[in-house]
Amino acid sequence: MRNWKFAMASTILGSALVLGACGSTEEETATSGTADSTSDEAAALEGSVAGDGSSTVAPILEGLVEEYAAVQPDVQVTVGVSGTGGGFEKFVQGETAFSNASRPIKEEEAASLEEAGIDYTEFLLAYDGLSIVVNQDNEFVEDLTVEDLKKLWVEDGTSKTWADINPEWPDEEVVFYAPGTASGTYDYFNEVILEDEDIVESATLSEDDNTLVQGIQGDSNAIGFFGYAYYVANQDTLKVVTIDGVEPNAETIESGEYSPLSRPLFTYASNAEVADNDAMYDFMKFTLENSGEMAEAVGYVPLSEEDYDKGLADLEALK
C-alpha cells in the first residue's frame, strides 16, 4: 500500500487526488486501471459503482478506490464529496449505491429512504477525532475546555477576542473557520458543542476542508475544526489544541478519552445494490477488508478485527 499520509498532505496542497468538500462540491474521483484481477474467488468483474457523501470519510474511500483499481480494473468506482447531508440526498434519489457519513443517519433521512423504498445497511469504517486547530504561530492557546469552545463558537452578538477566554491572552479578534452546514462534521460539532445554538456569524463556512486548512494557515488569529486526518496531513503547518487536557491521537480517540469530539465514521450501502450488482458487492467487501489499514494510513483510527468481521458478515447476509 502506498504512503497515504504523504498522499493526503500532497492532496491538501493541491495535488491531483482531490479529497474534496464536505458540502456542495460535485467533484468525483473515478478510477480505472489495466492490471489483471488478483481475486482468488471470482473472475474479473465489469461494471460501475457510485458513492457520495462526507469529505471526512473521503480520504479512506478515495484511497480504497485507487487500490481497488489494481484488483478489478474493469470496475469504475466514483466517489463524490457532497458532504454527509448532500450524500444522503443523492442516496434517497437513487443516484448512488453507497453514502459516506461522518455522523449517524438522521431520522428524517431514514424516513425519506423508507418512503423511497430503499433498504440500506450501516457499516462502521473507522473512528475520527474532530480536531480543533489554530495557526502555528499562535503561542498562547494550548488547551481549551468544552465550555471555552462553546463561548467562542456560539453567536452572542459580540465580537469575540482571545482575551474573552483568558484575560492574559491578546485582545485581538478571533478569526473562525468551520465546515459548511451540509457537513456531518458541522452537525456533530453542533450537537456536542453548539447544542443547536447559532454558530458565530463571523465564521467562514466552507464546504471544502482544504479551504479551512489554508485559511487557518494564513491567519495568526485563526481557529477552526475538521477531521483528524486533515490535521495529521498538515501537522507541520498547523497546531492542534488539547481539549480539557486531552490531545487527539490514535489512543485517545479509540478509547473515547478524547471526549466529546471522538466519533465514528460510516458508509451506508443500498441492500438491493449489494444483492444485484456484483461489482458493488465486491467493492464493499474490498472496502471492509481494507478499511482498517487505509484508515490508519490516512490518519484515522481503525476498528477492531471483530468489528470488521461483523461488517463482512452483515454484507454477506445481503448477497
UniProtKB/TrEMBL annotation:
Domain of life: Bacteria
Name of this protein: Phosphate-binding protein
Region annotation (Disordered) ranges: 28-53
Function summary: Involved in the system for phosphate transport across the cytoplasmic membrane. Part of the ABC transporter complex PstSACB involved in phosphate import.
InterPro entries in alphabetical order: PBP_domain (IPR024370), Phos-bd (IPR011862), Phosphate_ABC_transporter (IPR050811)
Record bears the keyword Transport: yes
Species the sequence originates in: Planococcus dechangensis
Keywords, sorted A to Z: Cell membrane, Lipoprotein, Membrane, Palmitate, Phosphate transport, Signal, Transport
Topology versus the membrane: Lipid-anchor
UniProt xrefs under CDD domains: PBP2_phosphate_like_2
Pfam family, one: PBP_like_2
Subcellular location, record wording: Cell membrane
Domain PBP, residue spans: 41-289
Secretion signal, residue range per the UniProt entry: 1-21
Similarity comment: Belongs to the PstS family.
